[in-house]
Amino acid sequence: MAGHAVEHDYHLIPPSPWPFLSGCAALIWGLGMVTFFTGLVDRTGDNPMAEFFFARGLDTIQGREGAGGGWIILAVGCAFAAYVMFCWWRDVVREAEAGDHTPVVEIGLRYGMIMFIVQEAMFFVGWFWMFFEAGLFHKFRATWDTNILENAPAYADSMAPGITAIDPWHLPLMNTLVLLLSGTTVTWAHHALIQNDRKSAKWGLILTVALGIFFTFLQGIEYIEAFAHREAGAPWLSTDIYGSAFFLATGFHGFHVLIGTIFLAVCLGLLLKGKFRPEKHFGFEAAAWYWHFVDVVWLFLFAFVYIIFGFSV
Amino acid sequence: MRLISKLGLYVSALGLSSLGLSGLALAAQPKDGSIGFQEAATPVMERLVAFHNGPVMWIITAITIFVLALMIFIMVRFNEKANPVPSKTTHHVALEIAWTILPILILLGMVGPSMKLLYMQDRLPETEMTIKVTGNTWYWSYEYPEMADQVEAFDSLLLEKPDAKAAGKPYLLGTDAPLVVPVNTKVKVLVTSNNNLHSFAVPAFGVKMDAVPGRLNETWFEVLREGTFYGQCSELCGVKHAYMPIEVQAVSKSEFDKWVRNGGAFTTNTAQNSAAAASAAPK
Amino acid sequence: MAVIGADDTGYGHDDKPGFFARWFYSTNHKDIGTLYLIFAIFSGIVGGYLSFMMRLELGEPGVQIFEDLHTYNVFVSMHGLIMIFFMVMPAVIGGFGNWFVPIMIGAPDMAFPRMNNLSFWLLPVALICLLISFFVPGSASGNGFGGGWVMYPPLSTTGSPGPSFDFIIIGLLAAGFSSIFGAINFITTILNMRAPGMTIHKMPLFAWSVLVTAALLLLALPVLAAALFMLLTDRIEGGTGFFDPARGGDPEMFQHLFWFFGHPEVYIMILPAFGIVSHVVSTFSKKPIFGYLGMAYAMVAIGVVGFVVWAHHMYTVGMDVNLKAYFLAATLVIAVPTGVKIFSWLATMWGGSIRFTIPMMWAIAFIFLFVIGGVTGVVLANAGIDVALHDTYYVVAHFHYVLSMGAVFGIFCGFTYWFGKMFGVQYNKWLAGAHFWTFFIGVNLIFFPQHFLGMQGMPRRYVDYPEEFAYFNSISTMGAYLTLASVVLFFVWLAEALIVRRKVEDNYWGEGANTLEWTLSSPPPYHQFNQLPVIKDDDGH
Ligand code: HEA
Ligand code: HEA
Ligand code: CUA
Ligand SMILES: [Cu+2]
Question: Are strands B217-222 and B154-156 parallel, antiparallel or unpaired?
Fold first, then answer.
């Protein structure tokens, strides 16, 4: 650098294409989202080419006629985004190896991760808020005079006694145990790493990732069951507000489990490649923090969404 | 200095406006160029106007003028020419405490009457009759649940411009079928909607209640004088949000009974009265 | 404010990257700040155009321009969204925040320079989505989304089935993530990268204001994101029923989620302006800011209380009266810390040696006009009175006094204050003065009469209104003409300054301007503070 030599420990990054390309990916992704969920053109048959790409992609999945490629833009957007993220984080890992992550930079990374998790927590506050509102106030609204307000029964039904909520003591309990266990294995891995016991660290992490996958698997079974029984009165996301709140809250949680699992799996890969040192492994710690966060959210879901409202309504 | 004089002009406009607020607006509909509330027709609105034009308006005008006057003084006294050497004062504990405590006191003074107004407005008294108001895209419909066998539910639509002229009603306020209520009667209003959000608002009554699909909101009014009162939908509800006015006809109790016995038909003198009253209303 | 240690960083021949890498792949906080400012100016033109068309329509009773009515609602909604998310926020947080927070705290750059650029690039993406939404089907009535910037369902779900609103959801999600990343970046930078000796209680007030703003963003935006996802899934056929009463859902719940974000959002827009005004007032009074700690913690208090008052936007939805009473009381509380700020600015000027430069005029006008906007906010906070004023032009007048005057005056204040620092050249003060005066008179002419319209009961979002509202509407539209001329003047002085290139010195404001940016060259070196400045312990407060 011209002028004074750099005499601070901060990490100045040279120009990077990834943020700009992330923006491009986001644009394609957004276009894909709209195409997939709403569609940009109607399926009239007048313009098969445009309709193939731009007619509502969800139709295909919901089993309506007119299968098409409405999912393609979304898929391209996702793939593009995934590629950019991969390159971006590859750069980060390289910089870490090159020693750019000085102590002060690492503190910054910690602040950043903490705040990212705070942000995620507020996101779930939104979903829980929705759930509590529905759970706590439907009874009050259900008392409205049905002669005057035709909707009142809908409030009563949506959270009425006898709705077949998902039994918390089967798969959900299992899932709770799986996540709690994974919380301990990731801590085990962390402590092993600090003591430079790489073998235990490796096994701890392998177990954690496996448990994460197992959780997703169980959750998948639960959803498939619910979907299969939705006509028989089991809640589904479109049946009523209980179903909506239930599936979107647990669904977004499931999505976060997936992210956490990938995060941990990447760390596992790095560990196997000999990366991370006992005194310096913030990437791993961040993954562990994130995993604990996901764990805590689940405990709230389990306590409120499954047990309390699954029961008392 | 130019800045100062401009600001001075400005505040005098503000001051004038606040003075003018108390004694204005007599019509039960908006009046061009007037700057206060429409004249109150219910006890709630009377109290609202008194509270606003009284303490609230004075407080905020006084605060604004105080800030402005202080600013002008500072600009005159402490500009570069008048005061070439700046002081270095950055603390004055007593002052800082004062400008924290004083606003608190002012606000505490405001909270009391404000709460009184709020509770009076919101707590329904023993009401003598009920009407149900439903918002539709884009018109209102009215029902008299207690008189359902006499007065059928009816829709109230905007009068197009020529029709409004013919009926002598203000365009965008007048409807083909007003809501009819007796005076000096506490009326409970149930508000709901069939599709989008709407809001049932009659300025002279101090009433504004959102019409929400799936919810039943309650409010009330007691009209103190006969006449025609206009309101407009006050929650964005789509293309014709500006075209679903509210017209309320307040009639004497006996006239109201007659109207009910007549099956709520608008061929009676009530309707004619309404047309006459509207054309007589000051424009 | 802080006095700077002896040593300044050197600069000289900067090795800047080539054009494309510099502006598209940027990792430099000043370049990114400039990008943000250009973006904000562009959005300001779009949002200003929309508002001007609205004022033209409302100039007299009857439908003049928007024959299909729907397009008017589209213009109103997009005007609100674009002005807020794409003009004010990028200007004050992305633009000035990026430019001056690192410099003021003595840091060489932001904590996460690459993520900083991501924050920027998500914004054009978001704006493109919003602009696309104009041209694709919204509802049965036409193209574009006409449900207001608040996007209440059912109008935004069943009421606008076309893809138009989906684009807005995606756009706002992108803008939201941009702001969240930005917030993480600012908080980390401020907490972790202050120069040696710069304790948090010596940090300049603009940095404080951005810190509080970033905290609000971090806590408020994710809730909006959740609400937007709910809208998205509700809109899908066979999707969820959060806001569908037929399935036990509740349209009002959206309003709670929205305003839980929306109210902090209004302070997100005004707090950085508070920060800017503090610097300008102190500089041109040639005095340190009065009651520095009180100023800083007043902003913290505004931020905290701002989270518990959201339902004052919902007094007429049919809330329980006790809840309304709570929100009434809580809302009034905010007047207290805001008053502390107003009076501290006045006390800073008191005893000072005031120079009426262009930024100082914007600052003085800001203080006064913000007080007007603030006290009408206090009127609205009284739930009983709000029943008469809610969704009328009184509210429009209130929030333009705090936005189109508060926030926008803050932007112009900062822009004229730092213009020479950012671009190394100075504007013509007569042109800039003409811009100030026309803008000042113009916006007052637009919005002051709207108070009267609101009191008389004229509802918002009306494409046509009864003749009885004609008089003040015509005045308001006359004001819009003047404001338009004024915006043209802004571009004139901007162009003139960039063409004529009057070079400025490092500290062209002289005595009084003593935050760190004034120790650097104008414009600052590509990388400042290669050697960190050391803050000595002898400053005024
Ligand atoms: C920058 C943006 C901004 C700011 C700073 C504010 C500040 C405030 N706002 Fe405003 N507001 C908006 C933007 C803003 N608002 C917007 C955009 C809307 C409409 C949204 C929509 O519906 O589209 C709105 C709407 C709105 C409403 C809802 C109206 C309705 O829809 O019915 C209310 C009600 O309480 C309100 C209140 C307040 C209050 C009490 C303050 C306070 O913070 C003001 C405090 C300041 C002062 C009071 C002045 C200075 C103080 C003193 C000099 C001390 C002495 C004063 C006293 C003792 C009173 N605002
Ligand atoms: C920051 C926010 C902001 C700003 C600046 C403005 C500015 C203006 N607004 Fe806006 N307005 C809103 C936010 C804003 N508005 C919102 C939220 C709504 C509610 C929407 C809804 O109901 O859903 C609204 C609604 C609204 C209405 C009500 C419509 C209705 O209800 O039917 C009207 C009507 O007159 C109006 C007019 C104007 C006018 C004439 C201006 C003029 O002041 C415009 C003049 C132009 C400028 C001020 C731009 C200049 C700035 C730049 C060129 C950028 C500079 C940048 C740098 C230097 C970096 N606005
Ligand atoms: Cu109905 Cu607006
Ligand atoms: Cu608010």
Answer: unpaired
CA–centroid distance, residue C210 to ligand 4 (Å): 20
Q: Measuring CA to CA, which residue among A133, A126, A51, A244 is closest to residue C236?
A: A244
Encoding tokens for residue A178?
Answer: 């799986």
Would you say the CATH fold of A108-311 matches that of A15-100?
A: no
Work out whether strand C142-143 and strand C137-139 pair parallel, antiparallel, or are unpaired: antiparallel
Domain ranges in chain A are 15-100, 108-311
Confidence label for A49 from pLDDT (cuts 50, 70 and 90)? confident
Q: How many angstroms does the Cα of residue C268 sit away from the middle of ligand 2?
A: 17
Kindly indicate the confidence band of residue C421, based on its pLDDT and cuts at 50, 70 and 90. very high
Question: Which of C74, C316, C345 has the highest number of chain B CBs within 10 A, making it the mutation to test binding with B?
Answer: C316
Residues 160-219 of chain C with CB under 8 A from chain B are: none
CATH superfamily of the domain spanning A108-311: Cytochrome c oxidase, subunit III, four-helix bundle (1.20.120.80)
Tell me, what's the pLDDT at C367? 97
Answer whether residue C243 shows pLDDT above 70: yes
Q: Would you please indicate which residues of C are annotated as catalytic (active-site) residues?
A: 79, 109, 149, 178-179, 263, 265, 267, 278, 312-313, 338, 341, 460
A44 Cβ under 8 Å from any chain C Cβ: no
Average pLDDT over residues A39-58: 83
Is the ipTM higher than 0.95? The answer is no
Please enumerate in sequence order all residues whose Cβ is within 8 A of that of B104, keeping only pairs 6 or more positions apart, or say none: C336
- A15-100 in CATH: which number? 1.10.287.70
Contacts of B223 (CB under 8 A, 6+ apart): B41, B42, B181, B182, B183, B184, B185, B187, B205, B229, B248, B250
Q: Helical H runs in C309-357?
A: 321-333, 335-349
pLDDT beyond 80 at B201: yes
pLDDT at C8: 37
Look up residue C459 and give its DSSP letter: B
Q: Copy the structure tokens of residue A158.
A: 């949506």
Predicted local distance difference test score (pLDDT) of residue C262: 96
- Mean pLDDT for all residues in chain B: 84
| Contact (CB<8Å) A141/B215 | yes
Which residues in chain A have their CB less than 8 angstroms from residue B194's CB? none
What residue has token string 């650098």? A1
Q: Subunits with at least 3 CB pairs below 8 A relative to chain B? A: A, C
pLDDT digits (tens, 9 = 90+) for B109-162: 999 999 999 999 988 888 889 999 999 988 999 999 988 888 989 999 999 999
Burial of B120 (0-12, 13-18, 19+ CB in 10 A): middle
Q: Which of A66-70, C43-47, C175-179 has the lowest mean pLDDT?
A: A66-70
Query: How far, in Å, from the CA of C17 to the mean position of ligand 3?
Result: 55
SS3 C86: helix
Contacting B residues, span 109-148, partner chain A, CB-CB under 8 Å:
132, 145
* Alpha-carbon distances of A36 from A51, A57, B241, rounded to whole Å: 12, 4, 31
The phi, psi pair for A131, rounded to 5°, reads: -65, -45
Q: Are B232 and B138 in contact (CB under 8 A)?
A: no
| pLDDT category of residue A135 using cuts at 50, 70 and 90 | confident
Closest Cα partner for A37 from C140, C164, C154, C246?
A: C164
d(C-alpha A146, C-alpha C246), whole Å: 13
CB of C42 within 6 A of ligand 2: the answer is no
Q: Given this model, what pLDDT does residue C326 score?
A: 96
- The DSSP line for B199-247 is EEEEGGGTEEEEE-BT--EEEEEE--S-EEEEEE--S--STTGGG-EEE
| Residue A64: band (very low, low, confident or very high) from pLDDT cuts 50, 70, 90 | low
